[in-house]
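Q: What residues go here?
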């Protein structure tokens, strides 16, 4: 009876947690409907840039997730009147998220002055504009928005539950890393950004465990999630889709560059090689077994690396014995792989300039579409006047 009562209390607590997350989570669908100028493509470009800024400045890894949440809260409450101001809104959201972090390292506190956030946009906005936008965000965000957990925080929590229960070992951290990468990808997709943190984190972790030949839905995950396996599988399908279809070249380049040094332990090499192949370019996430052998798409029967990854046979043979791949190796092996980025400290201003260029191109396309629509309406009015005459 005591065990049953404990189970009921845990289920009620998880249900309350799910409802609280849903209430505090940004309404991404409303944001998409409200915005006339800011399209999902613009949001994707801006959030990928925010990840670069956070990475370049070595901000605590959960900050960019909260920054994306704050950006979506703003987009669901206010219409952006000019696309040229969207970059200012994005960087202000990240700055506000950093300010709300519970513990700041010295290097993070040094970044709080508004001038740094204006400078990183490469002239897209002024210090006063960043200050004003941050003040507007502060007024918008309620306490339950600020205390709302990020997806990365929920991933950490679930991973430690698995570790404490003995389902994963310290050397299997590559499964956690793949889940983290999938969550980074999810930030760029409006559909996945609409999913509450615990469900998205659990789905990413479960999928990562499956990819590396571990039990995908172990009891500790079930004990700390209220969701059904069907709900998990639906989210996993969306995660697989963004991995296979979303280029995310800047994000993938960051991962390839930053994690090219790991996996020196020969026992871990197959897993880290597999991780690097996944993050380097759009591809299907094939599974490997506990021995590090790649499996067929259906999950049965061994498969050589060339067949499983789509690499040339000679390149696959090199990949099979070299362990983790650095940026140059990935570029030479994987079709469509991205070039390694510059070391930390050299990417942010270039990324800001690239963001502005892409925004200007999108804005020009939008103006052309408006002009064509106006010309079409004018022609229709002239035709109607001629018929009336």
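A:
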């Amino acid at each position: 009876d005591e065990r049953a009562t404990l189970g009921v209390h845990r289920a009620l607590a998880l249900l309350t947690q799910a409802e609280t997350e849903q209430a505090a989570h940004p309404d991404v669908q409303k944001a998409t409907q409200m915005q006339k100028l800011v399209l999902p493509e613009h949001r994707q470009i801006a959030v990928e840039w925010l990840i670069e800024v956070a990475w370049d400045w070595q901000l605590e890894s959960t900050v960019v997730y909260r920054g994306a949440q704050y950006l979506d809260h703003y987009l669901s409450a206010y219409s952006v009147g000019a696309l040229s101001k969207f970059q200012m809104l994005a960087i202000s959201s990240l700055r506000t998220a950093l300010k709300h972090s519970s513990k700041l390292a010295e290097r993070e506190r040094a970044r709080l002055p508004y001038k740094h956030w204006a400078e990183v946009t490469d002239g897209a906005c002024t210090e006063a504009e960043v200050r004003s936008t941050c003040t507007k965000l502060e007024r918008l965000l309620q306490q339950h928005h600020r205390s709302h957990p990020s997806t990365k925080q929920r991933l950490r929590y679930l991973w430690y539950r698995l570790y404490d229960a003995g389902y994963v070992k310290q050397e299997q951290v590559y499964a956690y890393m793949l889940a983290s990468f999938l969550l980074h990808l999810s930030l760029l997709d409006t559909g996945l950004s609409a999913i509450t943190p615990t469900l998205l984190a659990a789905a990413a972790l479960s999928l990562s465990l499956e990819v590396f030949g571990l039990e995908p839905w172990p009891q500790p995950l079930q004990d700390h999630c209220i969701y059904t396996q069907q709900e998990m599988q639906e989210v996993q399908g969306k995660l697989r889709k963004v991995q296979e279809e979303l280029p995310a070249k800047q994000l993938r380049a960051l991962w390839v560059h930053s994690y090219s040094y790991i996996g020196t332990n020969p026992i871990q090499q197959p897993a880290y090689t597999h991780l690097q192949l996944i993050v380097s370019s759009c591809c299907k996430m094939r599974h490997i077994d506990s021995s590090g052998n790649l499996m067929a798409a259906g999950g049965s029967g061994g498969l050589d690396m060339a067949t499983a990854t789509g690499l040339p046979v000679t390149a696959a043979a090199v990949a099979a014995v070299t362990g983790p791949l650095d940026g140059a190796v990935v570029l030479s092996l994987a079709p469509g792989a991205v070039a390694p980025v510059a070391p930390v400290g050299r990417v942010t201003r270039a990324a800001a300039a690239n963001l502005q260029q892409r925004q200007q191109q999108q804005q020009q396309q939008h103006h052309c579409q408006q002009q064509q629509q106006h010309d079409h309406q004018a022609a229709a009015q002239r035709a109607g006047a001629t018929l009336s005459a």
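A: Context that may help when evaluating the design: The chain has a mean pLDDT of 79. The first helix runs from residue 2 to 24.
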